[in-house]
């Protein structure tokens, strides 16, 4: 049986399960569409939250970013995991006790302002749309490879699948579909990692294998050597930065990690999951279980990245870095390189024998020592012309020459990760449009049936928009998602924190704070990315990247959050105090007594 047929079987079977669950759990009311009827068990909700959270960025892209950068990109792990601790301790139980359907509804009621609710809707849509672009990018990568079609065609097919099960199921259908998707994605991520860890270091636990001695075959015949030690040696010999050293400046690393943390705690599609449980105490338990389920992947990801980088480098230099690079003939004839030919068809991997020597040199041609070595050997630039980092995890089983069924399982897992989060994000967007914008403001007398239909139409429109934007994303999946976290950190998180823990922040302060945080962050990202030109030219001035102490666009969300907090407090202190009934409401939400038995309000 061909690999293509095996991929179809795994992907087709998983999709049949998802769509079957969505039909079984089809939402019949707005309560079921927005909050699954508030009847989801904490363990079930924790698993669904983990699937909602472990998106294409976590499953597909994060290990690739770690693999090609090393220690510096461990910020993704620290930020995303730390954010869940903030969410569990500071937000989830209080928001559940408030008893609303959406984040925007909480902000509107807490700050006693329809304007605040509408600004929150705008912030939510901007952050969620940016996030869903990253998911659709991952969908295109996975579908493109495993159906052996172009990245664009894969993205379009993925959009149709999301439409099929998310539009009709709502939160109820999405919740139970995500439970199935979690099982698929965690098996798909860990099983190949176990195989590769056994190959390289002889241990079935990848997280331990990362710090173990590698086998003589993988070490090139050397004596006892640690995996990371060998990887450092190889990449530095090829002119790349050391894998285990820190190269990113401390300011960007701290701000980026903080941006991911508070962005996590402010993401609407994650917060919405805690509205689905019966009690306030269940919200805490859901967050705890989600951390357990997430840890299974996050403890494995660094090992996947390091082991994949080592395998790729060994394949590109089969005789060692002081010998010959891989030959064009080997790529054409050796089964170990079949993965390169299949990924080439997606447009995400490419190579070129620039100097016609029959070899494909892979090295850092920006490094002075390697440039000198290249000149001495007649090399003409790095001949691995394209290696999209998002392909690494999906290609990992093929690179390691694992069985065909493992590759098929990886196909299903990658798609499960991207589709589960895409569904959650699209649900957050549709809820904001139908419940907060239409029902809450424009047509308050709308019937429940009409509201349910408007929610489904809004989700369908959001899928179309996300697909169009996903065709030309602003970076790799994880990088695009990082921008979304920055936007959520700068706009939504401060409003939620001040709404829960401060009675002094009023409606005017909250609105001004959200607008200031979102506006600053958006403008900075657009300028830093070169999408907003101030000199009328086709390029961005060289000074812009360093205009804010060299802060990168993915790290600016933490600064935007600080601006949000500052503006909100300054404006609040300069305007009328919060009404007493709102102060009483805030105090009642924070009272811990009886929280374990608190039910809907």
Automatic annotation (TrEMBL):
Gene Ontology terms: cellular component: plasma membrane
Keyword Membrane appears in the UniProt entry: yes
Record family assignment: Belongs to the sodium:solute symporter (SSF) (TC 2.A.21) family.
Membrane topology: Multi-pass membrane protein
Lineage summary: Bacteria, Pseudomonadati, Pseudomonadota, Alphaproteobacteria, Rhodobacterales
GO-annotated biological processes: carboxylic acid transport; sodium ion transport
Signal peptide (from-to): none
Organism name: Yoonia ponticola
Keywords: Cell membrane, Ion transport, Membrane, Sodium, Sodium transport, Symport, Transmembrane, Transmembrane helix, Transport
Cell inner membrane as UniProt keyword: no
Gene Ontology molecular-function annotations: symporter activity
Protein localization: Membrane
One Pfam assignment: SSF
Transmembrane segments: 6-25, 77-95, 116-143, 149-168, 180-201, 253-275, 287-308, 405-429, 450-470, 476-496, 508-527, 547-571
Protein name listed in UniProt: Cation/acetate symporter
Top-level division of the source organism's lineage: Bacteria
InterPro entries membership: Na/Glc_symporter_sf (IPR038377), Na/solute_symporter (IPR001734), Na/solute_symporter_CS (IPR018212), Na/solute_symporter_VC_2705 (IPR019899), Sodium:Solute_Symporter (IPR050277)
């Amino acid at each position: 049986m061909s690999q293509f047929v095996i991929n179809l079987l795994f992907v087709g079977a998983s999709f049949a399960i998802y769509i079957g669950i969505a039909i079984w759990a089809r939402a019949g009311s707005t309560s079921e569409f927005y909050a699954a009827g508030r009847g989801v068990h904490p363990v079930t909700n924790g698993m669904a939250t983990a699937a909602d959270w472990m998106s294409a960025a976590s499953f597909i892209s994060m290990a690739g970013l770690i693999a090609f950068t090393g220690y510096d990109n461990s910020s993704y792990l620290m930020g995303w995991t730390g954010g869940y601790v903030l969410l569990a301790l500071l937000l989830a139980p209080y928001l559940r006790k408030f008893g609303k359907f959406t984040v925007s509804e909480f902000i509107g009621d807490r700050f006693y302002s329809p304007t605040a609710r509408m600004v929150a809707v705008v912030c939510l849509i901007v952050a969620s749309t940016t996030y869903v672009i990253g998911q659709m990018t991952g969908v295109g990568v996975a579908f493109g490879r495993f159906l052996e079609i172009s990245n664009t065609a894969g993205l379009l097919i993925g959009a149709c699948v999301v439409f099929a099960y998310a539009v009709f199921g709502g939160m109820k259908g999405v919740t139970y579909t995500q439970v199935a998707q979690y099982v698929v994605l965690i098996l798909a991520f860990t099983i190949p990692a176990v195989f590769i860890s056994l190959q390289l270091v002889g241990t079935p636990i990848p997280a331990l294998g990362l710090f173990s001695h590698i086998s003589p075959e993988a070490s090139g015949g050397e004596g006892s050597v640690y995996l990371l030690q060998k990887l450092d040696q190889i990449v530095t010999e090829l002119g790349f930065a050391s894998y285990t050293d820190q190269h990113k400046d401390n300011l960007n690393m701290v701000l980026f990690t903080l941006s991911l943390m508070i962005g996590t705690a402010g993401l609407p599609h994650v917060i919405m999951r805690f509205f689905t449980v019966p009690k306030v105490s269940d919200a805490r338990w859901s967050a705890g279980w989600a951390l357990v389920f997430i840890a299974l992947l996050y403890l494995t990801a660094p090992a996947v990245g390091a082991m994949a980088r080592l395998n790729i480098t060994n394949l590109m230099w089969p005789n060692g870095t002081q010998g010959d690079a891989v030959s064009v003939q080997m790529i054409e004839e050796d089964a170990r390189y079949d993965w390169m030919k299949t990924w080439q068809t997606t447009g995400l991997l490419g190579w070129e024998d620039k100097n016609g020597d029959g070899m494909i040199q892979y090295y850092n041609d920006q490094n002075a020592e390697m440039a000198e070595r290249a000149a001495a050997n007649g090399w003409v630039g790095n001949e691995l012309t394209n290696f999209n980092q998002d392909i690494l995890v999906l290609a990992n089983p093929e690179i390691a020459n694992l069985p065909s069924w493992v590759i098929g399982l990886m196909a299903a897992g990658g798609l499960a990760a991207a589709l589960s989060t895409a569904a959650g994000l699209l649900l957050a967007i549709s809820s904001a449009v139908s419940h907060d914008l239409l029902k809450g403001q424009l047509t308050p007398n709308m019937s429940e049936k009409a509201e349910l239909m408007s929610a489904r139409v809004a989700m369908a429109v959001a899928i179309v928009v996300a697909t169009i934007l996903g065709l030309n994303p602003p970076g790799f999946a994880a990088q695009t998602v990082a921008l979304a976290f920055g936007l959520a950190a700068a706009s939504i998180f401060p409003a939620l924190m001040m709404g829960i823990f401060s009675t002094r922040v009023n409606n005017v302060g909250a609105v001004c704070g959200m607008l200031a945080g979102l506006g600053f962050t958006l403008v900075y990202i657009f300028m830093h990315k070169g999408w907003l030109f101030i000199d009328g030219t086709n390029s961005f001035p060289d000074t812009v990247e360093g205009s804010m102490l060299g802060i990168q666009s993915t790290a600016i969300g933490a600064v935007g959050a600080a601006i949000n907090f500052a503006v909100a407090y300054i404006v609040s202190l300069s305007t009328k105090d919060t009404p007493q009934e709102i102060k009483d409401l805030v105090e009642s939400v924070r009272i811990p007594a009886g929280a374990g038995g608190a039910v809907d309000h």
